[in-house]
Amino acid sequence: MALFYPSGATLVDSDFVETAVSATYSAAMSCSARNAAIVFLLLFLPAPHLFAQGASTRLSFADGQIDCEISSPQGTIPELLLSTLPVAMNAALEHVGPPPGPARLVLRIQKPPPFYKRARALFRVEAFAIQKNDEILLHVGDDPLKLAFRIAHELSHWLVYKKHPARPPLWLDEGLASFVGAETADTTARIHKQSLERPPPSKLEKNLFDLDELASLQAYPKSAARSAAFYWQAEALVRAIHQRLGSTEFGHYLGLLCASNPPPWQTPLRERWYFSDWDMNWLSEQIRPSTAIPSGGEK
Ligand SMILES: [Zn+2]
Question: Residue 211: which H helix or E strand, with range?
């Protein structure tokens, strides 16, 4: 899945606007938004075969189960990426779990698109990362926190794809990816002795979804403001459910919603974890900015 955000912005939730084209999210082929994003990305990225003098390296994770190849069009692999990737992978493995068998991931570092092409991008934003099957295309940049969020977000999508081919509902896939991204950015901030600031997107109040509307979304919202609200609220909902269930039980919940014929999102919460109407009201409050659990607030 692709992440977009305005060039040079601070790490705010509204930065992470996925391909908000009018594509339908389908469980079978992850989503056509991703395909649209890939086409979009490839339109302004140089073809990989032009990178004759590139560098590559391999890292392994999850006790050797994940073989990760990193390739770069430049002569070196950025140190920032090598130090951030293990933190992001650990967070993704912790919250999604390892793939069911040996898995290979290719991480292709991309050159930033030239300015004149960036200006033509959707919502005047720049594509920074995208996951498609076993490949992640990534702009590294020079901001450790943005990079941490970006890689972890895509690694979460990749691990969900490996572990649950039927895929979860849109809110859960994106919410979990951003939750894992935020956790990784938070850890990276502590490593770099920086503070992570994530103010809610502007105009959030005017663009909020209610709980059932959010959980039943089948397609990415078309407007930038609605899309920013969707990402913010999906992450907040995942954070709230994760806080109530804990990591292990959250993993079970994810598995249940990734079944080929999944139950409604509330059913397992009510039947297996005894959520009451009061709990559902509490979840409704957590997807509003005034009452949400702050990012990083559950440690
Ligand atoms: Zn995503």
Answer: helix 211-215
Residue 244 has what DSSP assignment? Answer: H
Q: Would you state the structure tokens that stand for residue 275, as one six-digit string?
A: 């959520």
Determine, yes or no, domain membership for 29.
yes
132-166 as b/e: b if 16+ CB within 10 A:
bebbbbbbbbebbbbbbbbbbbbbbbbbbbbbbee
Return the closest-CA partner of residue 152 out of 126, 182, 186, 174: 182
pLDDT confidence of residue 14: 36
Kindly give the distance from the C-alpha atom of residue 52 to the centroid of ligand 1, in angstroms, as a whole number: 30
Number of domains in the chain: 1
What separation in Å is there between the alpha carbon of 18 and the centre of ligand 1? 6
Query: pLDDT of 47-59, one tens digit each?
Result: 444 445 789 999 9
Output the CA 35–ligand 1 centroid distance in Å.
13
- Which residues lie below 8 Å from residue 70, measured CB to CB, with a gap of 6+? 56, 57, 58, 59, 77, 81, 82, 85, 107, 109
Residues sharing a CB contact under 8 Å with residue 190, sequence separation 6 or more, in sequence order: none
Burial class (CB in 10 A: 0-12, 13-18, 19+), 18: buried
CA of 177 to the centre of ligand 1 (A): 6
Q: Which domain holds residue 172?
A: 3-286
* CATH at 41: 1.10.390
Predicted pLDDT at 47: 47
Q: Is position 63 within any domain?
A: yes
Compute, in angstroms, the gap from residue 122 CA to the centroid of ligand 1: 16
The whole-number pLDDT of residue 209 equals 97
